[in-house]
Task: structure prediction
Amino acid sequence: MVLTEKREGVLLLTLNRPEKLNALTGALLEELHRTLAEANRDPAVRAVLLTGAGRAFSAGQDLTEFGEEKPDYEAHLRRYNRVVEALSGLEKPLVVAVNGPAAGAGMSLALWGDLRLAAAGATFTTAFVRIGLVPDSGMSFLLPRLVGLAKAQELLFLSPRLSAEDALALGLVHRVVPAERLMEEALALARELAQGPTRAYVLTRKLLLETYRLSLEEALGLEAILQGEAGRTLDHEEGVRAFREKRPPRFQGR
Ligand code: T3D
Result:
């Protein structure tokens, strides 16, 4: 259900239920969580790239998973939340390549990418309200931060289907590329991050997520703590040495 492939420091993860538009099930979420944990443990993995197989990125929760039965929502959401915690706390930079429709929790997962690319034909829809649910998988946290409260209200209350260009204009994705070049461009970006200062990327993500709920004083304090941590990495030493020697740095991810 989740294909994995390592290429030049990049772990490529592909949601692989193309016949179901990569709709998410408990089993798929468990597998995704496990592969993300493995990526954290593997020093050879310096960046992760997430995409979908077939014509969709992900249609969100598989609405056929539970048949006529009502799921135990709290237990079910815990599976989603573990994946969101694994994505937001991933110890490597994360690139997401949105190859087609991203809906509901599928859109939420896409938004957790540090850098997000979309194929020109990709679409985004929050979808939750259309089936009488509230946003989950961190969308209520991330969406207003990315697009502002007013736009988030519109996207969540009306659930329009956004084109890739709309998503770019709103800041939901960073680049839109022709479909046939999506993976090439996404891999190039992931490879670039895989050669970068891994810890600095991860600590930067942490700052960007945390400082929203902090006062300026607290944010400055957190910057100082995390700068202390980044400043102790070999990559920082190498970056400064390379600058002085007027050559490109060779970061090791340590
Ligand atoms: O457990 C809980 O419920 C709590 C957790 C909630 C998290 C969530 O993610 S809630 C949101 C769930 N997702 C949706 O509501 C999205 C529903 N799907 C769509 O809006 C559209 O299908 C898409 C925008 C994703 C794609 O549209 P399009 O026009 O490209 O394809 P289509 O024709 O609508 O769908 C193609 C097939 O996929 C179709 O099946 P069929 O008729 O060919 O047999 C459709 O039923 C199926 N499909 C699409 N989405 C899902 C799905 N099957 C199962 N689950 C889906 N989410």
